[in-house]
């Protein structure tokens, strides 16, 4: 296992997942909720890659493989946790935007 490569995989996939989630949020602001949901699925799939890599590192350590703690590894963990937190919040914001849209349609069915 190339530790540095695994670390960069976590950073890259975590950052990509976060960016894709923000694309989903923008689509929700544009009331493109179906596309927004598709983007969130893509974000979760990308996040899973980062999470799987993290799990692989944890399992290696549990199997007594030496995993050197480094600032880069801490940075990778930070990226992953930030992506997880922000994606969770973005999902809630998208639900709120959908609810607002439905309420606006009830109050003003013609959209004028």
Describe the protein in words.
The longest helix has 37 residues, at 71-107. The chain is 84% helix and 0% strand. The protein has helices at residues 3-29, 33-62, 71-107. It has a single domain (3-107), classed as Methane Monooxygenase Hydroxylase, Chain G, domain 1. Helix 1 runs antiparallel to helix 2. It is mostly helical and 112 residues long. Its cofactor is Mg(2+). The modification Phosphohistidine is found at residue 75.
Quote the distance from N terminus to C terminus.
60 Å
Q: What class would the helix/strand composition place it in?
A: mainly alpha
Which CATH architecture is right?
A: Up-down Bundle
Number of strands: 0
The count of domains is 1
**Stretches where pLDDT falls below 50 for ≥5 residues?**
none
DSSP helix fraction: over 70%
Helix count, DSSP H or I runs of 4 or more residues: 3
How would the global form be characterised? rod-shaped
CATH class: Mainly Alpha
Beta fraction? under 5%
Write the element-wise H/E pattern from the N-terminal end onward: HHH
As for the CATH topology, it is Methane Monooxygenase Hydroxylase, Chain G, domain 1
Arithmetic mean of pLDDT: 95
- How is the biggest beta sheet arranged? none
Cα-atom Rg, whole angstroms? 18 Å
CATH homologous superfamily caption: Phosphotransferase system, lactose/cellobiose-type IIA subunit
């Amino acid at each position: 296992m190339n530790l540095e490569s695994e670390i960069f995989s976590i950073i890259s996939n975590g950052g990509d997942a976060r960016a894709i989630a923000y694309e989903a949020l923008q689509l929700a602001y544009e009331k493109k909720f179906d596309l927004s949901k598709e983007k969130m699925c893509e974000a979760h799939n990308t996040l899973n890659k980062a999470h799987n890599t993290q799990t692989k590192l944890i399992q290696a350590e549990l199997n007594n493989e030496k995993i050197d703690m480094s600032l880069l590894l801490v940075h990778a963990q930070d990226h992953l946790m930030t992506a997880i937190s922000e994606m969770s919040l973005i999902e809630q914001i998208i639900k709120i935007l959908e609810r607002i849209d439905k309420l606006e349609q009830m109050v003003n069915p013609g959209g004028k």
